[in-house]
Amino acid sequence: MNKQELKELLDKVSSGQISCDEALSVIRTEPYEDLGFAKVDHHRGVRQGAAEVIYGAGKTSEQIEKITVSMLNHGESSVLITRMSSDAADFLKNSVPLKYDTLSKIGIAGEVPQNNNIGNIVIASGGTSDIPVAEEAALTAEFYGNKVSRLYDVGVSGIHRLMDNIDVISNAKVIIAVAGMEGALASVIGGVADCPVIAVPTSVGYGANFGGLSALLSMLNSCASGVSVVNIDNGFGAGYLANMINKIGE
Amino acid sequence: MNKQELKELLDKVSSGQISCDEALSVIRTEPYEDLGFAKVDHHRGVRQGAAEVIYGAGKTSEQIEKITVSMLNHGESSVLITRMSSDAADFLKNSVPLKYDTLSKIGIAGEVPQNNNIGNIVIASGGTSDIPVAEEAALTAEFYGNKVSRLYDVGVSGIHRLMDNIDVISNAKVIIAVAGMEGALASVIGGVADCPVIAVPTSVGYGANFGGLSALLSMLNSCASGVSVVNIDNGFGAGYLANMINKIGE
Amino acid sequence: MNKQELKELLDKVSSGQISCDEALSVIRTEPYEDLGFAKVDHHRGVRQGAAEVIYGAGKTSEQIEKITVSMLNHGESSVLITRMSSDAADFLKNSVPLKYDTLSKIGIAGEVPQNNNIGNIVIASGGTSDIPVAEEAALTAEFYGNKVSRLYDVGVSGIHRLMDNIDVISNAKVIIAVAGMEGALASVIGGVADCPVIAVPTSVGYGANFGGLSALLSMLNSCASGVSVVNIDNGFGAGYLANMINKIGE
Amino acid sequence: MNKQELKELLDKVSSGQISCDEALSVIRTEPYEDLGFAKVDHHRGVRQGAAEVIYGAGKTSEQIEKITVSMLNHGESSVLITRMSSDAADFLKNSVPLKYDTLSKIGIAGEVPQNNNIGNIVIASGGTSDIPVAEEAALTAEFYGNKVSRLYDVGVSGIHRLMDNIDVISNAKVIIAVAGMEGALASVIGGVADCPVIAVPTSVGYGANFGGLSALLSMLNSCASGVSVVNIDNGFGAGYLANMINKIGE
Amino acid sequence: MNKQELKELLDKVSSGQISCDEALSVIRTEPYEDLGFAKVDHHRGVRQGAAEVIYGAGKTSEQIEKITVSMLNHGESSVLITRMSSDAADFLKNSVPLKYDTLSKIGIAGEVPQNNNIGNIVIASGGTSDIPVAEEAALTAEFYGNKVSRLYDVGVSGIHRLMDNIDVISNAKVIIAVAGMEGALASVIGGVADCPVIAVPTSVGYGANFGGLSALLSMLNSCASGVSVVNIDNGFGAGYLANMINKIGE
Amino acid sequence: MNKQELKELLDKVSSGQISCDEALSVIRTEPYEDLGFAKVDHHRGVRQGAAEVIYGAGKTSEQIEKITVSMLNHGESSVLITRMSSDAADFLKNSVPLKYDTLSKIGIAGEVPQNNNIGNIVIASGGTSDIPVAEEAALTAEFYGNKVSRLYDVGVSGIHRLMDNIDVISNAKVIIAVAGMEGALASVIGGVADCPVIAVPTSVGYGANFGGLSALLSMLNSCASGVSVVNIDNGFGAGYLANMINKIGE
Amino acid sequence: MNKQELKELLDKVSSGQISCDEALSVIRTEPYEDLGFAKVDHHRGVRQGAAEVIYGAGKTSEQIEKITVSMLNHGESSVLITRMSSDAADFLKNSVPLKYDTLSKIGIAGEVPQNNNIGNIVIASGGTSDIPVAEEAALTAEFYGNKVSRLYDVGVSGIHRLMDNIDVISNAKVIIAVAGMEGALASVIGGVADCPVIAVPTSVGYGANFGGLSALLSMLNSCASGVSVVNIDNGFGAGYLANMINKIGE
Amino acid sequence: MNKQELKELLDKVSSGQISCDEALSVIRTEPYEDLGFAKVDHHRGVRQGAAEVIYGAGKTSEQIEKITVSMLNHGESSVLITRMSSDAADFLKNSVPLKYDTLSKIGIAGEVPQNNNIGNIVIASGGTSDIPVAEEAALTAEFYGNKVSRLYDVGVSGIHRLMDNIDVISNAKVIIAVAGMEGALASVIGGVADCPVIAVPTSVGYGANFGGLSALLSMLNSCASGVSVVNIDNGFGAGYLANMINKIGE
Known about the structure:
The structure is a homooctamer. Helix content of chain A is 40%, strand content 20%. By secondary structure, chain A is an alpha/beta fold. The longest helix of chain A has 13 residues. The two termini of chain A are 21 Å apart. About 2% of the residues of chain A have low confidence. Chains A and H meet through helix 7, helix 9 and helix 10 of A and helix 7, helix 9 and helix 10 of H.
């Protein structure tokens, strides 16, 4: 049930077509379906303006399938699945239409949503190894209809590669900065941009990067204003938040 | 120099009133004044849409005064100073008009900006001890003309206090969640809101909070979507980012 | 030897049927059997009111078998084995009757104890991936005869799923809250329940969860009263402690 | 409003003396009083069976006074205040009757509750320096009417001091083990007791104790069953939980 | 060259049989053989009273073989090899006589040294899973001719198992306490013994043991006197040091 | 009661002068005196061959005085007090004879024990700032009658200062290596000595020494054999253990 | 484009052969080639005096090949590839001439550069297991034409092995000290050398080395002057920096 | 004794003016003077080409004075003292000529060395609060006769401030990059410079900077080549190393 559907329901109440109790009962019973191992939330469309997403890691192929099918059966036209193994994708393809990207491990079940090219989200990555995380962010943002510009391999060790793209940065409505190692990309972009910057530390690196800790701390301590941080390797979280911000004012 | 002033300069170039080189020279020489110990950035109004802010911690009263005066002399009508001791505030009052808030340690030199009541930023805090950080965020946001709604002491150990204010949360354009200890407030708000949530971990607590680490990790691992995190106790950063997001679409 | 048997022995001493020294010798020689690599404790039934449990991790199939057989031969009717690989379970089935649960990796050798449906232990989990730990707790509690109610996938990012089950929580005598990521579930439950809450952080998550550290710190810093914490992923410990608490007053 | 008062209110509804709406309005408006900096929760007596407690650290003397007075004015006969400085205690004594303990920094405002000597809570501490935390636990438990037995300075480096008190441990309904340094006390007690053990790590020690981390990790990894852990130095939390457990079955 | 041989050489100098320079040249050229990837130290018998030991981890089978052969060719009758994979052991058996223990991964090349049953080293372990580390210590101590008494599975969760062996502990000249999880064994033994206790934390455990950190910190913070600590899982180091201490006064 | 006194008591039992029960009662009642806040252990002379020591940190002057007097009244001729503030020392001097060293903060109450010049303990320190910890070790060892040789300021950055004293190191029976910063002293000494080396990391340093963590980890990972480690800044523990080792074979 | 080529270009500008704009356009368009997943930097020869290096870890064989070919096609005569798997090396050999070293995982594509035997870089390693990292440094330095002297297995536990090579150390222009475990080698060399020492901590070790943290902290806290540190296992970084330093003054 | 003096001594040996033994005796007895608490190293001028420096932190005013006087009496014309409190400086001025800088806490006793303006060391700092550390580096480098260029307050949040000084960076022989918070300055400078960059993390910042850890990790993980790192706040170490590098080739 999306906001429009909810609004129609409430209009019927307002006009006396259905009683308040009937409306409440419809809304209240809808929120989620209990699959035993998961409570699938069909109400999120109302509550947060976007259909629920399935976090594939730590779930069996069978669990992913059941949740996906439950969602599609409750009116979702498409479902985003993150961190899905290629094995799980192969399994899922037997039951539902699925588009799967091996690099970012993102799958889209059901219809691929139309891209509405809303606003402009710039996704910059420090190095080649950060691209899987950057793509997780990019595909998530595109799933929700946003226009995405990719600026890959513009890490600070060759600052001119970034400076040559200063116009791309200037035209962004929100920027996602994806970087491992020392994570300085977020600060440098934050210093030249005048829009919100979402920093995504990655676990790329070795030794004293301690699984992404170095980039994480670096980004949290950014001396540039307008920068906030999501979890290490959390491309989805950044893409989802960028979508939220990008659509403000549409 | 703000965007408007820059635009006028460029119009003169366009119409041939001044040459391109003259314009470049004006822009290029303006960016900062070198005080020796600091390079004051007068160009930020152009580059990022907001005047520079003085981070007062670790600066002497004399340094703060010199930077403030330099800014006011270069056309800023008001300057925001964060983490300023009351001693520094007393010192500064001798030179410039200053409004100082002892709780958040924020000072505003020059004219107090008019609040334009733009959008709606909700600032929620977990407990009474988190209020100084929450106020740093609130005063920063108000400095830039945003409308701010305060929801203090709504921590998750009494979840009904938060639930009773669900309408305030629903009407927010962006929410700042300030919490120490276990930092769960961000996840709970992130689960019910459908706007961006900026999480500010605080160092409030003791023992295994390790100076704010517990709240920081908790917020970074939030299972709610749309949540991003700034540094521990960084109320200013949250307020500044909230201002950026809130003004999108104005 | 259980408490009843011990009491009968001491009655015989009291009535002069056997001498004090004979009794002491019986008790003293019984405590454990030395298998070389392990000292099997047959006295725990007296000392702690529950038969010893075998922690299967880090033990070979042969070691598990020898300890199990030693216990069954000394009068235990059933033995609980935790963290047992399916290989070890297959091996053990050759020697003794065994019921094995692949999800929680718990095995019960000998007779499956009758469930006496004592009290009410509620086990809540944040997400689908936390279920193996939650089931380790649940099966442990059921092994000792407790009634267990499961509330799975009620994490705080969709707080209404938890709120809809507020009556289940209100009727609990003790609650086990199992959650990874930010571990906020314990605080939220602790805030609405008026019984002891045992929090189990899990290693579910990635990046800055640092193997369960985020949930652990979050739970230790809970601002709700009545919450205590066991080791990361320690479902058994929570189930065992819940059993102890639940049976007080029976 | 306690459970009894709530029950009477609902009985009136049931018998038609007051309408359902009137009752709801009474309950709903009662939960908390908003002091601006704090939302004082007067409903906790219903929700959790114990009046709210004031955590004094990080609050000004004035804030503590206002919250205390608000509580006493709403029908609480006595209020427990933890981590209150002696200065705050002196300030508070001007407004309300107060009993203050300098060692544990606990204050009781209003009437000192009658001790009902319910059950038996044993509080054991490793060394002399752990006593302030142990007393915080003890006074909290006594505030709620529990009988408390103190076993101080029984650390494991002189295990016979503990073993000489094995009968005290055997008769406990719940035990609180307070220890700094290596925190082994919890495991040793957990190994001989057959009741729940609440472990409280303290920050006592130096060097590699890292502010209580050594005792905390030690207690979380206890190989004894039935042990759970609260935050470093959290005597109040342990005393409150012990009260909850001790009263089960009363 | 051992101390006796060195003494004879110096006697010859003293009596004028050889010149000082000749003697120096003999000693100086002897210390080590350079294999390119390793400088094999044949002088250690003089310098430290015990032949060099090969740390097998991180060395190829070929490297281990070359170092072993170099040592045996320079007059060592037996060589101790620690942390050697069974593959490396199989490889080495082709060249030299080898006795290999799969549990502790210790190999002895050349003659197995005669055990002189010197003094008494007690090795206590907390649980069954700690035995590989305990055996590394035991076999090392026996290699150097010490008498070793093993006390396995006497962890503090069943303190009576340890107390029943108090006489074994009383008769020790030095004790090695091997334990994972909370590592409390070292403190308890340190509290009842009056000889040096070498504590070996192990990585046995899970969750908040953080690879042995919990036992390490616990042992470093031991409140018992006479306890010192070696690296996590360093059975060899403990056995070698126990040998040094045990032989003082022989 | 020391070993000699205990032996005489048991001889009386053996010869029938007193009954076994009388002897037991004497021994059993002696172990400790309960001062309420402390259980003073008068039996340690029997159990561990050395009188109890008072750890002064975290105890009030009054507590230290009461414990000291209790010990002197129970037959101890001298008592060692560590980490005692100069204020506590001044207070204590009113009641008992006291010798106090301001550098190491060690006090000796009662008679200063005669130094028997047993064996040879070498105490080496890396720098001038490590001397307080080194002196805590030295005075402790001298208290128990050991001969101590001091080698101060011989850190590895000027390795020749250490090498010039190679004969001092060669003649030691046990060596205590005290060092902060990188703590390399322990490894270098361990590589040239053929006796046990007790490493004491100190908190001397700044930045990435993290309160002594760098020296601690360095010493635990020493590639030299025969090295073990005590807590950061634990000079007493090292001196006590060195005494134990030094006296083996006397 | 190297410095010489750039100079010739600028000379042409100076003499009017080409316009400033043409020159700028040549320089500006040259910097990098965009392969989509990577921006290959052909300008580094100008900017930093050394051709770009390919960091092989985290790149597919195909990506490495494309970048290598792009570089060779743009005028590089040889390309250094670090952390390349042997599979990637086999793949790359199909397209370009490649010399591959399995120990250090370094590959050189194109012509092997002539070694000009410039200066003298000494590379010392603590143990046999550190050699792969040491060789990464050595081959990098040799790639750029430096003379390299290897001193392997000279760890501080046998300080005489290092002291015997004091002349090698005295003649170095820059020294690279590679060590795991306690990392003391850097301090000892720093204390005797009078040239810059680049310390490379390695992850060699176990237990409390925490993946190289012990050596890293040790080296950062070195009490010897003239020592700086690169990332754990970063042999390339050390070799590259040594090359920079070594060539100063050539 | 400096290199020149040593050379003259050896020339006398070579020409037979003094015997080899006499020369050795002079050299050997000179190395250090033992003050009891410190072994003052007068030989460092020979061994490392620079007089010893006194690290003032953790030393009493009296100790600093004695070491300084000892050095000046042994032929040093000037002595560098770091981290000296102003109290110690006042004390020292009574005995020796002293120039003291309050910002960096550096003192120069004896003659202020002539600055020879050798080479060019650039010292860049991120912010105003990093200046004390930067000045410690600058004054150290100037003490040894180097020319120093200061670039303060050029942090990456305003990258144009750094880019405007690209020519200063291009002309450096070695650069010291001093920065706290996210420490990105080192990477950005490392990416544009073609000389060695010494990175100095500072403890400037708050919250998740954890006392300089964020900048330290960031700098260690720098993706720019040619960057190495010294301890947090270690301005002296950077200045000393820069001096070493700068003088290569003079």
